Amino acid sequence: MALVFYARVSSEKQNLDRQLARAKEVHADKIFSEKYSGKSLNRPAFKKMMNYLREGDTLQVVSLDRLSRDYNDIKKLIQHLRDIKVSFIVDDLPQTNTGNPLVDQFMMDMMVQLMGFVAQNEREKIKERQAQGIKIAKAAGVYTGRKIKYGANAKDPRNRWVWQTVTSDLRKKNIPISVIAKKVGISRQQVYRIKKRENI
């Protein structure tokens, strides 16, 4: 039976130090961490963690939104953990130990549902504020749109190399998209986006 700790932040600019310190403090047997958006469960470390969990293990996070910010995803995840008999600890939720398993489960379910709703509501508010900011910027004529990751002017030299290689190979016409994608280490969808953007 292992104590498995999952830590996540949404972007490269954020750091995992506080969460990893907590994992060390509770003497976690296994730690999975990543810098990835919480809008979906399609995340590399998260998937590895879910495959690692076994009956009798305990999963711990500092807060529910580290797992997901989507209310439905949280509900499905909690049910899945229950089905595979994995215990669940959320640091910022009070632990219930009444001695009655049914009461404890009911209280945990109520708290998880409430926090799941709060997490999704916060995500919706963030999206709403972003949309309002974009609208104001467009009206003021200062909106430049989302920065292009792979382009001639990308800040990251590797991303510039990816753009140069992809556009060069696309212009050769005889190289399959899947081959180009594998060569530069990006998805076929991203190659198609570059192709469409550059009108190749």
Tell me what the structure shows.
- By secondary structure, this protein is of the alpha/beta class.
- The protein has helices at 17-25, 44-52, 71-83, 101-140, 157-171, 177-184, 188-197, and strands at 3-9, 30-35, 58-61, 87-90.
- The chain is globular.
- The chain starts with a strand and ends with a helix.
- The model has no long low-confidence stretch (mean pLDDT 85).
Shape: globular
Name the average pLDDT.
85
Ranges where pLDDT stays below 50 over 5 or more residues in a row are none
How would a textbook summarize the main sheet?
4 strands, parallel
Count of DSSP strands: 4
Strand content: 5-15%
**Largest sheet, order of strands side by side?**
2-1-3-4
Distance between the termini: 54 Å
Query: Number of helical runs?
Result: 7
The helix-and-strand class reads alpha/beta
Q: How do the helices and strands follow one another from N- to C-terminus?
A: EHEHEHEHHHH
Evaluate the radius of gyration. Answer: 22 Å
* Fraction of residues in H or I helices: 40-55%
